[in-house]
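Hey,

Quick one before I head out. I ran the complex with WT7 overnight. Inputs first:
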Amino acid sequence: MSNYHIKHLEEYYQVYRKSVRNPELFWEEVAEEHFLWHKKWDNVLSWDFKKPEVKWFEGAKLNITENCIDRHLHTRGNRTAILFEPNNPEEPAQHISYSQLHARVNQMANVLKSKGIKKGDRVCIYLPMIPELAVAVLACARIGAIHSVVFAGFSSTALSTRINDCGAKMVITSDGSYRGDKTIDLKGIVDKALDDCPGVNCVLVVNRINGEINMKSGRDYWIQPLLDKSSSDFPAEIMDAEDPLFILYTSGSTGKPKGMLHTTAGYMVYTAYTFKNVFQYKQDDVYWCTADIGWITGHSYIIYGPLLNGATSVMFEGVPHYPDFGRFWEIVEKHKVNQFYTAPTAIRALAKQHLDFVEKRDLSSLKVLGTVGEPINEEAWHWYNDNVGKKKCPIVDTWWQTETGGIMITPIPFATPTKPTYATLPFIGIQPVLMDENGAEIHGNQVDGRLCIKFPWPSIARSIWGDHQRFKDTYFSAFENMYFTGDGALRDEVGYYRITGRVDDVIIVSGHNLGTAPIEDAINEHPAVAESAVVGFPHDVKGNALYGFVILKETGEGRVQDNVRKEINQIITEHIGPIAKLDKIQFTSGLPKTRSGKIMRRILRKIAARDAENLGDISTLLNPEVVDEIKGSAM
Ligand code: WT7
């Protein structure tokens, strides 16, 4: 019997029970049936959350790109693998077939090889959403190099930190990128970053905007001439199941980003299986995920999951508001998109616009709508359901993380009845638990607590690159023998989960995961700043926005303060990127601190949210008087 494709609720419960009773047997069957292996595993799973160590399909040999591409050549060689929709709607879309993708990935792999890249080397990819990004990712996987994609909205400092942390030898970038009616000088950002990256000896440059750029001789090469003279054959490197596939950085509670390490076979099996079921993808459907490949959503559900299923995956270079706020719906109509996957922040921004943008388009191709990245509020859920899905398309509110590699809690469309703001039920094989602050499991329904997972799933991250201790401390130390997600959740009367948000110092702004510490570090770089604290506050489009409380060394006048505000945001933009800019900056003479010197963020969060009536017990503070001052001049 095949459990690969779940179609109704009964079947979900049946398969779920099986996957939990005997996970090894369950995942072994999935792995047996749907993939190409050079050698099968000796052991399905070994794990120990104390170390922590997790190994899936140990002993197996494979290459994930043969599963993404070669395997489909006989049956679907001429079908579209990647459907590229450019920033400019006048520029024609590109339909890249599986055969063409095969040739392009092989050529790129040959170029990487000719520049000295081999199995295990790290390659940093800093590209806009153009086909070369997907091709470069797959070329790394083909050759066995570890890709580390850095979102092309990150600044040069953020880029150099990541390049140095993973020890990348090569950077693949473009001369620039389009963003609406603007262009961005990506190569200039790379050049600046590389001043601090002595380990990089080769930069491959895609020509996207015909930009005027500097090419450093002996280091920088235009990619097209190299591709043109490369063979379109490349025998895939045979990898071990647990060989690293990629490193992807995510924010943490200290200044340094965490390089989440994902490995090959388990990631492949889980992203393929979740894609098929969560989107109910059927042959020849057109699937579109609007995320950027610089985030895990793009890795797992623009590239790997869809291609592993032989799907057509839309890749969109542009932004939702260019040339106008109807762009998403225009694209859905144009390419007859069947599954559409986006973030609540985009839905909220689009819901603010005139309904005509949606109504003038034929959206009848849509079958399934997805959301990811942050909790979706009730109004946004209904707007999406009523106006985009016309109440006919189930909404899959998918909860997961960079660390989990794939979707963890989600409805299965047409099987699980949906409920606004609820991610609903654990996906097959996922065993969530709610824990209280004392480390005890909270049983029963209608309860809330800290969300943990008590059993490994195939695509769990294996480590933080170069810092296994931090991996252990961050995810496996708060609760014994559990993976701790950092999120709070509640479980309703039927066992549905609702994710309530982060319980740590990570803030999700427009679906981007930002740590407060790196932002505070950036603010403190300003010569006039003595100390700072950043918290999130509710924002109707972004979900959360950032509020900074800043102590200046000397309090200046209003005008001076305004300048400092601007400069602080400039520094943040340089260190991290524009996504981390503060919406509000309040100057204060002090920050509320505990006697041990820890900032009481709980108080600052309440003040920022204009909910400071009841601050609870502040008597333990070292400096309770400062609270009134901060409340009094809150913005
Ligand atoms: C954090 C992970 C994995 C996709 C992109 C984000 C929040 C994610 C949901 C959801 C409520 C969600 C969580 C999580 N989150 N999806 N459906 N409902 N919250 O990946 O950058 O690693 O962020 O995003 O807080 O921990 P990420």
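The chain has two domains: 2-475, 506-632.

Talk tomorrow,
K.
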